[in-house]
Amino acid sequence: MVFSGNNVLVTGSSRGIGAEIAKTLAGFGLKVWVHYRSGAVQADAVKEEIEAAGGKAAVIGFDVSDEAAFVDAIKTIIDSDGELSYLVNNAGITNDKLAMRMKTDDFMSVINANLTSCFVGCRESMKVMRKKKFGSVVNISSIIGETGNAGQTNYAASKGGVIAMTKSFAIEAATSGIRYNSITPGFISTEMTEVLVDEIKDGINAKIPMQRMGKASEVAEATAFLLSDHASYITGETLKVNGGMNMA
Ligand code: NAP
To answer: Whole-prediction pTM value?
Structure first.
């Protein structure tokens, strides 16, 4: 794939989907900022794997819910590289409970980690990318943001918000040469879905036309496409990567 830009920050790339996105983008020649909150050792391992394969990487750690820390991190990247070409807002959490039992704090913690952080990343990236009149951002939403799900009112609200917010950023940034798109993965095999018991996993697979969970690498390839020059006329789009689970 062809990329006119040079570097990318992938939030939450110490493991799971983010780590796969980081490795995939490094494979296309981008310098990748591998990001973690608590998994410094795992982030270092991702960096080492990228470098062993001949790629370029740096590690950066901060809590995406901490606005000042996110702003500082973008500054660190600009001070080091002089630019930020691409951003993938991937870091995310779940905190599932039936709505009747969900405390407002349970709701807001997921909104802050998944939606507010994404807003801060989109806004701060716009400030630096517009100076070069170039940039591309991919926000990792979820199929749950399209369909809703029992026990996930907080997560569904955060991920539905990401889809709508991405479209608004896309409109505001369109004449500045910056594209904003989102991806809605279905169920992907990572630590987030590993916690599900086999009975639930079997129930999920039965509802997927392709009859299997997706691989992190399949989300990574779609992310690379949306960031790349190949998607130069695509902005505000929501790309489903879900094995056919939701086509609406
Ligand atoms: P994961 O394996 O649980 O990894 C989550 C990543 O996000 C980790 O690198 C973690 O960092 C980081 N992170 C979480 N909270 C953070 C915070 N407050 N500040 C900074 N970093 C934070 O998750 P995943 O399954 O790869 O999911 C990645 C994204 O895809 C999420 O946005 C998720 O909602 C979305 N998604 C996943 C699926 C799925 O089936 N897996 C489906 C649809 C959408 P540390 O470990 O270093 O703390």
So the answer is: 0.97
- pLDDT, tens only, 102-143: 999 999 999 999 999 999 999 999 999 999 999 999 999 999
DSSP type of residue 115: I
> Which residue in 86, 155, 180, 233 is the catalytic one?
155
Name every residue whose Cβ is closer than 8 Å to that of residue 53 and which is 6 or more positions away in sequence.
Answer: 23, 26, 27
Q: Is 36 a catalytic residue?
A: no
* All structural domains of the chain with their residue ranges: 7-241
Model confidence pLDDT, tens digit, residues 35-61: 999 999 999 999 999 999 999 999 999
Ligand 1 probe mutation, 9, 15, 38, 95, most atoms within 8 A of CB = 15
140 lines ligand 1 (CB under 6 A): yes
CATH for the stretch 7-241: 3.40.50.720
